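#struct-help
A.M.: can someone run this one for me? Single chain, 210 residues.
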Amino acid sequence: MIDLYTWTTPNGRKISIMLEELGVEYNVHPIEFSKGMQREPEFLKIGPNNKIPVIVDQDTGQSVMESGAIMIYLADKYGKFLPKDNAKRTEVMEWLMWQMAGLGPICGQAHAYLHFNPGEAPFAEERLKAEVARLYSVLDRRLEGREFICDEYSIADMACWPWVSRYEWHKADLDQFPNVRAWYKRLLARDAVQKGYHVPKKAGEIPTGD
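D.P.: on it. Structure tokens below:
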């Protein structure tokens, strides 16, 4: 059994989507930012960076923080969504790291400037819009002629999709990225993606990609 400590963010949704895809039982513990729950001593024992998501594996007592590390841990534990072949595994890891180092941080900063504080910092806004567009272009080229980011549906897709689901927040025009749009809608049709999106609670409708 997995305990998932999470909230309604792209990084949190990566893990709930993965757990739904794995079809394993898990307990959800909402960590509400507005109540400062991420700073409570009990949470800091398992998540010392005071951020979600965090999991605790009841089978082993192992706690894991950082969404990428959690995805690798779960993939290895259950033997799914991360190839065992070294070359294929490395390819999935490349795109997982791309999300962790680029797509997520840049889109997160874009949310702060473009969605929550528009007009406050024009230079930062223009720079972030340009970098968001560049990253979407990278993903669009990668998805040319592909159903998924790598050969098979993997943790790379699950890591990237929740960030792309906030395309409106970071002002990405999916008309310019048809391969990303098709991939986004393909994953949106998966039951596990829809269920995982609404963990730990429903926070609005899922953007359709239209």
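A.M.: thanks! Strands lie at 2-6, 26-30, 54-57, 63-65.
D.P.: also worth noting: The chain has two domains: 2-78, 86-190.
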